[in-house]
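Materials and Methods. Structural model of Aminotransferase class I/classII large domain-containing protein. The 474-residue sequence of Aminotransferase class I/classII large domain-containing protein from Entomortierella parvispora was retrieved and submitted for structure prediction as follows.
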Amino acid sequence: MTRKTNLSLRAQGNLSGENVMLEGVIRVNANKFDEAANPDGIINLGVAENQLMKAELRKIMGKVDHVDPKLFGYGESPAGSKQLRRYFADNIFNRYFKPQEPVRVEDIVLSAGCSSTVDNFTFCVCDEGEGILITTPFYGGFNTDIAAKSKAKVVIADLGDISPFDPAHLELLQHAVDKSTEQGIPVKAMVLSNPHNPLGRNYPLEILLEYLRFASRNRIHILFDEIYALSVFDHALTGVAKSEQPAENPFISVLSIPHLEQHCEKDLIHVAYGMSKDFCLNGFRCGALVSPWNKDMIDAMHSIAVFSWMSSTTEAMLTRLLADGKTVDEFTSTNQKRLAASYTFAVDTLRKHQIPYLPAQGGHFLWMDLRQYIPPAFKAAAAQGDRNQEYLLWRAMLNEGVYVNLGAAFSERKVGFFRLSFSVPIPMLELGLKRMLRALQLTYDPLRVSTASTTATTTTTPAVVAGNGTTLKK
Ligand SMILES: Cc1ncc(COP(=O)(O)O)c(C=O)c1O
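The predicted structure was written out as tokens:
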């Protein structure tokens, strides 16, 4: 690479990468749906943004004097004021994560968003060119968090047909690490999101324990991104949406696992969190690293915290929101009920149209299989990994006025999977789904085609297996 542009090689390395997620977001933001002002605008069912709690947030935040002159100066600490970190500890982590040892103020470093937290974490554990292991499919933002500034490498363990919730995938982890080491990229950490983004499910305990043992065996750090911990809604489901949930599978924070030291050296274990998801505050930019057993990590995070210092106004607003445990409880339980209602509406619609999906338990999204809308002439190529048809479906939906996120953005190898964010008010969701179905049927309508044929039936279709190896519901 030359220095033609007069930028650093580091920065130049960021110029060429294509970012599918970004392309969609740019199109949506240029033409945002608004029921009154822009009803033909694009409905955003692609970004994990929860729009269900706006009225409550307005009410709580409205009480903060955001032009209080005290907020014009620097805050108390780039890592967040003691008071705010105290509220994070008491009213989020110790209240909801069931930690074996109470989380303390000094275990937490705040930053301007969970993306910053993962970026700073990467900076602290990886030198340039070292790797962080992730299994597929995964939240695409990790690519940027890990590579853009720290210049670490994402080391992908491609699970192919195996689900990340199936212990069968575990042997692929060691294989990925060994191969990466052979290629000169030593792996320094593993990152995973629990609840899983994009699959919307919790990791079972046995997998969490295996991950811990794996980290210990390889002496690598392991970061549990638990940013959707309070968005688990399956307990609030009823009817069919409830009945299709697999066996009891609660969210388990790594902090709550007893005798962690029997599975992994505790200094390797860290948790990332943030206010974007469970508190519907993507725009506020606040993330947290919790590292109760590694003082060096905490000190290293403090040493770079100044670059991702959240604003004093944000800090004041969050301090207000989190000050009272009862407010957090009410907010959380209302949010979970609304997530369950929007989820139910989404899956009822998908079921009606025989679109397979993976039942979700938490998060703002669900994973659906749209392969049936790939026209027959292109199915073989798509099955071989040709992504063209996935892009075409995605653009067809955008052209009809709805944005959903495509499997490529999550490094899903199989072509034709999409992530649908349902965390919007039901009327908007209904319209978005209508647009999505119209776009799909215009591209290729398997029901119409098979109804016309003499042999195929269209009323009952068997469950199919998703790209992640988990049986999807029809
Ligand atoms: C698993 C996960 N981690 C981190 C983030 C980024 O969060 P933030 O908005 O706090 O940067 C997201 C956002 O989608 C996410 O899904």
